[in-house]
Amino acid sequence: MLPLCPVCGKPMKVTELKCTHDNVKVSGLFTVSPLAFLDEEDMRFVILFLRSRGNLKEMERITGIGYFTLRGRLERLLDKMGLKPIGEDEVEETDDVFTKLKKGLITVEDALNMIKKKSGGGQNG
C-alpha cells in the first residue's frame, strides 16, 4: 500500500525508483496500479478472489463469510480502487475524471486523454 501523508492523510506520490543491486536511481512522477492503494487485508481478499476464479460462492464456502458480505466487500474494494463494474455507467463523467485526478488515481495526461475521448476529440482526422 502506498504510504499516506502524515499531514493531510492523502496518498503520497512515487517520485523515485532505486535498484538495490547497483544503486541506480531514477526520479520522476510514476503512475501506480490501483492495487497499490489496498492494505494487506484487502490484498488477501483480492488474492483469494483470483484463486477462486472470481467465484464468490466458492469464497463463501472457503471462508464461511456470507455471499452478500463478500459482495459488499468487493464493492468497497472497487470503490477504493476507483473502479466501476463493467456495464455500470460505462461513460465516464467529467467530474469523475477530476475526482480521480485529485485522488492521485490517474495522471494529468490520463485525465486529458479521458476528457478528449469523452468529447470526441481523441479521434484522428
From TrEMBL:
Domain DUF2089: 5-36, 38-83
Any matching Pfam family: Zn_ribbon_DUF2089
Protein name: DUF2089 domain-containing protein
Organism for this UniProt entry: Thermosipho atlanticus DSM 15807
